[in-house]
Predict the 3D structure of the following.
Amino acid sequence: MSIQAIFYHAGCPVCVIAENKITDMVDRERFDLEIVHLGDNKSRLDEAEAAGVKSVPALVVDGVPLHINHGADLSALR
Amino acid sequence: MSIQAIFYHAGCPVCVIAENKITDMVDRERFDLEIVHLGDNKSRLDEAEAAGVKSVPALVVDGVPLHINHGADLSALR
């Protein structure tokens, strides 16, 4: 069964660099990677926050939030 | 040819969580992942800094630094 990984971003330059690297690196044979633009999908903000995401870009892997560099605080996207 | 990825850490709890996830996620068929403990290998500090690493844990992929959460500033390891 694939492990769930969600990459949250907001289309910012810092986000794009991280997205390119993460999508390239993740082993797609084992991980089901979803990319979520929180600016375009504000309905997913609560879910991201509940997972522990404080800023974007961030990757939530199997429930663990990994903040990757810093583009924008989640609060700035509300 | 494998793409070079170096994970720099300092053995801190934040580092260990990130290390576990990153080593699990990276596609080893395509990426050559090296793990470097900067506390034990201070001779690698200059190299990490030159790659743009400001804090650990950090992953440098193909020359691009990705800071993953925040454990310690690089300056604290010197």
User: Anything to note?
Assistant: The two ends of chain B are 34 Å apart (CA to CA). Strands of chain B lie at 3-9, 31-37, 55-61, 64-73. The interface with chain A takes residues 3, 5, 17-18, 21-22, 24-29, 31, 61-62, 64-70 of chain B (CB under 8 Å).
